[in-house]
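Shift notes (night). Ran Terpene synthase N-terminal domain-containing protein while the centrifuge was going.
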Amino acid sequence: MTHNAASPSQNSSTEMDGRRTGEVIRRSANYHPSVWDDFFIVSGPGRMEPNPDVEMRVRVLKSEVQMMLKNATNKPLEEMILIDALQRLGVAYLFENEINEALQSVYAEHVNCNINNGVTDDLYTVALSFRLLRQQGYHISSDVFKKFKDEKGEFKTMLTNDARALLCFYEALHLRVKEEDILEEALTFSTKHLKSMLPYLNAPLAQQVKNSLETPLHKGMPRLEARRYISVYEADVARHASLLELAKLDFNLLQALHQREISDISRWWKEINLASKLPFARDRLAEVCV
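Came back to this:
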């Protein structure tokens, strides 16, 4: 099949004609029509309206979780585990003040332990506090991990006996900065051993390790990570029922809000007929909102 392409002289002639008439000449993009059509307009109202009963339940659950945080005061590890769960489940924004105060206390304890040479030898505790505090903007030296090396300068093989601690270590290492060689070494070490032990791990830890190796927490999209972690947390025997329910309801409420937003935007887009007024632009409203 032979295609007739316009010659450079023809293109130049068209452009000159356009300049004479003052018309802006644009190439035809021939984009495919949107696959969504009127989906968000037709299915929008009704099922996405706010539910007062659900919102009341969220308030009750929020109070219960606040009490959990209060009861964890002066129990640093328990407090950090709870904060980590709040952040992973995507509901930390509901408890910003409580989390800020808790991490200030954790940092003060960290500084005090460093001064008195009393930093714990538990890898899980050190790695979790390192990640939570760095995420919050506190300056935490990578030297806290030196104690986990042997006399040859290599990370101790005994660290591979605890997959949960090693995973926590691996997640913390993604907050490293330039010239932190010990963290680069640790990342190689933890990645290698997590991959080797993955086939032998039980759920939900196996799924959590698999997810983290694919997309480390620090590099993931918070809302997608929250959806993924809800399933992991639900299978955890140490889960808090109130926190799990709060995370599910909050996720659904936020999804409903996004759906109402795209329904309103889609209706506005259609009413003013922007797709025909901007033929050189893609009619991809749903993708843009995502």
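The domain at 52-142+157-254 is CATH 1.50.10.130 (Glycosyltransferase). The longest helix spans residues 241-271.
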